[in-house]
Structures are given as structure tokens and as C-alpha cells.
Amino acid sequence: MTRKILRIDASARRTGSVTRDLNDQLVRHLSDQGPVDVTLRDLSSDLPHVTETWVGANFTAPDERNDQQRQILELSDTLVGELRDADTVIIGLPIYNFGVPASLKAWIDLVARVGETFRYTENGPIGLLEGKRAIVMVSSGGTKLGSDLDFATQHLAHVLGFLGITDVSFLTSDTYEAALAEAA
Length: 184
Prior knowledge:
Blueprint: E1 3-9, H1 18-32, E2 36-42, H2 52-58, H3 67-72, H4 74-85, E3 88-94, H5 102-111, E4 118-121, E5 124-127, E6 133-139, H6 152-162, E7 167-172, H7 176-183
Parallel strand pairs: 1-2, 1-3, 3-6, 6-7
Antiparallel strand pairs: 4-5
């Protein structure tokens, strides 16, 4: 069976990026274990931020959206589709100023959509993306994972869980060999 992987690169650096290198090596490692189909989503290109017009389109019933609203949500629909289709999500997470890069936050805002990736119930929200695995390759420049200064991994774990992805592993660049063994 072919494993469907969504690879997300969040580093602003295209060359010399630790997380991109780790993602490359992790994808190769996983492909050595069996066939993979990899969708690459590079967030270093400008993703739009959520605007009032986007919110209006998102909260309009799909069958009532006009052409402009459908066009505004087109990229978001694509990103949600990539996430839905994946069995495994690999995220390269450089920690910038103790948090996630702005590009990753923009991606989160575009995929966290009521009725698409989560729904509200009388008991609170429920994620709709259950049964997926996320492997987050982290490079922090000195911020220790799980420390009081690590806001990035806590934030990302919460968001992924909110979407229904609760099988999440955070692996650091300084334990690369152990990371590959754990990711298998």
C-alpha cells in the first residue's frame, strides 16, 4: 500500500535550512520502507492572510457562494484537500522568536475551517481529520523542546489535535538518528 505523505516546509530559508534537510532525509527514510506518494507544500512563498472577505466567504454556505467567494477560498480548499488526502503529515518547524513561523500560522488559518477540518457540537469542537499521523521535525536554535520558552510545539500540537490529528511526534535536529528510528 502506498503511504500518502503531505510534506510541509515552513522555513523561510530554501538553502541551508535544517528543517528542510531533515524533511528530505525523513521522506527518503520513509520511502525506503515502502512506496510513498509525496505532496510538497512549501510555505516560503507568500500565503495570503485571512481577511474579512475570506471570513465572509468561508461562513457562506458552499451552495450559496458566488464566483468571487469560491475564488477567494480556492487556495484554502486546495490546502484542506492536501491535508485530508494525507496519511502522514511531515512538518519542518523552525522555531522563530519562540513560536511558529508566520507562514505556518497563515497555513493553519487557511486549513482550520469549520465544517471542513473540524465541527462544532454541543460538547465543543471535534476534529474531522482523525486517523492521521504527524511528524514534526523541529530546529530551534537553542530553545529546548517542552521548555517554558517553547511556544511553537505546544501551539502546533494543540492545533493539530483540534483538527483531529492526535498522533503527533516532535523530533529535534540534534537527535536526528533517533528521530528517524522513531519516525519509522
